Amino acid sequence: MSANELSAGLTEKVNEYRMMSAPLEQAMRELEYAQSLLKARAEDDIAKTVPALGALADILGISALDLLTSPDRMAFLQEAMTRQEISAEEVGHLMRAQVESAQSRDELKALGLGEQISQ
Known about the structure:
Layout: H1 3-49, H2 51-60, H3 64-69, H4 73-84, H5 88-98, H6 104-110, H7 115-118
């Protein structure tokens, strides 16, 4: 087999791969887009259902959905507070300023998010 034949054979295989993978790549892009829409809708629904959780997510710059699906919610919150360089007391103060519901503290405690943040 000559170098030209080898090169042509490899080029053919690469082109075949590209042709066959193009629909898969398009499907993956469409799925990623659909997933982002679903996540945005879920985030909006969560914020409407539990406004305190939406406020907490906004204050810490996190996804409420990611928080709720985290295996260790408190560690997730601690990491977010560290990234934002904010204390639990400051978060509590900001939450009270944003959410004036008496039940917000109980809602956060029911979600296992710790009393120190919801005070």
